[in-house]
Amino acid sequence: MLPRLVEATCGQRDLDRWRERAVAGLSGAVLELGFGSGLNVHLYPPEVTTVFAVEPSEVARQRSASRIAASGASVEFVGLDGAQVPLADDSCDAALCTFTLCTIPDADAALAEVRRIVRPGGTFHFLEHGEAPDAGVRRWQHRLDGVQQRLAGGCHLTRDPTTLVTAAGLELVEVERRYVRGPKPWTWFSVGRAVVPA
Question: What is the pTM of this model?
């Protein structure tokens, strides 16, 4: 059920404009954490040649097949756990994750893998929801967080993606943060790009 629920909620067409901003500028070999059912595939820039996909759900991987078949990029599934990706150091030009840092059990370890795998000067692109700036909304997020994790496969409402990115030693170069349409505890979005330092 969960992969279908994620596809229904995160695959809404009005989210494509946010996804387009997250994938803009990607090129070459890209590591995608939380590939899911391939909701980003049709938006990859033509400069993307290979995508190394990390996705733990077999159902999601199966549901991605038609999207992959219609894509110009080669997609190779390389692992189930973003905290342990079987790719060599400095082997990718960029990494991408959308609506994933909220759910990865060890987000710090996954971002350490991004830093290891993406070459120096390469980029990390992200689109995430997370902890809101408004005290009233944050209170609701903390109240709902336990239920959210149980019902949504470990998804946290209270993680701040930009804090996670900078704590991993990635250099944040661009970020936009704002509410989008919908209930505020779920709709504080951050879309941005960071650089892997030399």
Answer: 0.93
